[in-house]
Amino acid sequence: MSVHVHTGADPARLQSTLRKLAIAWTGFEARLETAPLIRKLNRGQLTLADYQAFLINLRQQVVEGACWISRAASNISEDYFELRSTLIGHAATEHRDYHLLEQDFVAAGGAIEDIRTARKNVGSEALSAWMYHQAGRPDPFHLLGAMWIIEGLGAQKASDWGGSVLRQLDLPQEAARFLLYHGENDGDHMEEFQSMLAMTPLDEALEARIVRCAEVTGRLYALQLEEIELA
Fold first, then answer.
1. Section 75-103 average pLDDT
2. How many other C-beta atoms lie within 10 A of the C-beta of residue 133?
3. Among candidate residues 147, 120, 118, the one with its CA nearest the CA of residue 134
4. CATH of 11-226, one of 1.10.3720.10, 1.10.10.60, 3.40.50.10490, 1.20.910.10
């Protein structure tokens, strides 16, 4: 994943952090490729039922994304009000994204009550618990590592996944708006991520926490996909 730093903070520490995050991303990406659903997608074997299951399971994480970002912002001290404000704005931008997933699901032939009433799978439960626990800690700057993974997924994978879904299943674009939207917009979010990183008191210890958070989040996100029951 390419990185471009635009900040007045210590460039050496920022570059070190971004390099280590890029390594964490590479490990996450490799893990994604082993998930049964992603293997079927990459091999051109995805079924409509598989895609509907993907949308159902993804909704659980998306509904809560803005919530844990808001919780993290509420636990950032006033000394870092600029970062807090940026996180609140980010949460506001994304807090209704799950509606796109619901609309995609209906456009792909699903019933709205099915996606709204589905329970979390094991991976989603673990990911949710991890995010909320970390967001509740004082000055949870390390959650930028989680954002690196999740926003990076949109920037690096969403467009390809969305296009592949439409081709394989012969669906209209209205059935993959969530993926296509994030593929188009999450590149800007990655730029925002780097700006937020520059707002933190970044040192060796925080760098290690951010990278570790990225690694754990990547593993749990992959588990969420691995636990999707396929047709």
1. 89
2. 11
3. 147
4. 1.20.910.10
